[in-house]
Amino acid sequence: MAGKGMADRRTEKPSLTEFMPANESDYLIPSKRYIAFERTLVSFLCKQDLILPNHITYFRFLICFFLLCFFPSLSYFQIFVLATLGVLSDFYDGALARAASKKTRLGMMIDPLADKLLAFTLVTILLVRGVIHPVYFISMLIVESHVVLIPLLSWLWGMLPGGKKLVGSGRDGGNHGAFIVKSREIIMGKIKVFLYALAFLCILMGNAVNSAFLLNLAQGLLISGIAAAAVALCGYLFRWFKGPYRIVGL
């Protein structure tokens, strides 16, 4: 009976909000100095249980919604401030999840969605205001297509006879027979987010203070970010074809 109970617990689907400890590979820079630095920055949040990492991610969604609704009446500086808060929230939700061992499967799913929503919110605002050329927007759509391509490939793979079930190869590990986001990031994916953030902030501040230098710098950063995203796209597709899987439900 005891053995059966233990087996049932092993096959039980993990909760989307179940806390999981962080591994060293979860950190952007897997070194002791960086880990200590990151934990110091979020130490004040670790001492309380009022704010969870996912709450910070929800805040980023809220910023995107506010920007989309009210950007026509906002100045470039005001948009810059809100965008900066969004970028900082991207750092703090992950840092808090790692430092406080409060990483969740839900956070692993919604955090990259919030990142992409913030990026596309800012690029849409800049596109509508005529600040950037539409080719940048189209290029970003193409290089971020893995968000749609990977689930589509997984669905098609599941339609084939003998299509493999999803194997837990993400950082949470294990085969739970449930939908697990393959969240193991590609380094170029992290670099492109950083480049995008710098580019958008430079564009906003450049327009706020009328600085040609910042605008030229932003253009170079944006092009570099798109190039890094293209490399990441190839990496995500290669990883999927190397180990195809199907989605079997939450």
CATH topological fold name: Four Helix Bundle (Hemerythrin (Met), subunit A)
Multimeric state: single chain
The number of helical elements comes to 10
What level of helicity do the residues show?
A: 55-70%
Overall residue-averaged pLDDT value: 83
The CATH architecture can be given as Up-down Bundle
Tally of individual domains: 1
CATH class: Mainly Alpha
Order of helices and strands: HHHHHHHHHH
SS strand fraction: under 5%
Describe this structure in a few short sentences:
Helices cover 67% and strands 0% of the residues.
Question: Explain this structure to me?
Answer:
The protein is mainly α and 250 residues long. The chain has a single domain (2-242), classed as Four Helix Bundle (Hemerythrin (Met), subunit A). It is 67% helix and 0% strand. The chain is globular. It is built from 10 helices and no strands. The protein has helices at 2-11, 32-41, 43-46, 53-70, 76-99, 105-128, 134-143, 146-159, 187-209, 212-242.
Fold blueprint:
Blueprint: H1 2-11, H2 32-41, H3 43-46, H4 53-70, H5 76-99, H6 105-128, H7 134-143, H8 146-159, H9 187-209, H10 212-242
Question: Keywords, please?
Answer:
250 residues, 10 helices, Four Helix Bundle (Hemerythrin (Met), subunit A)
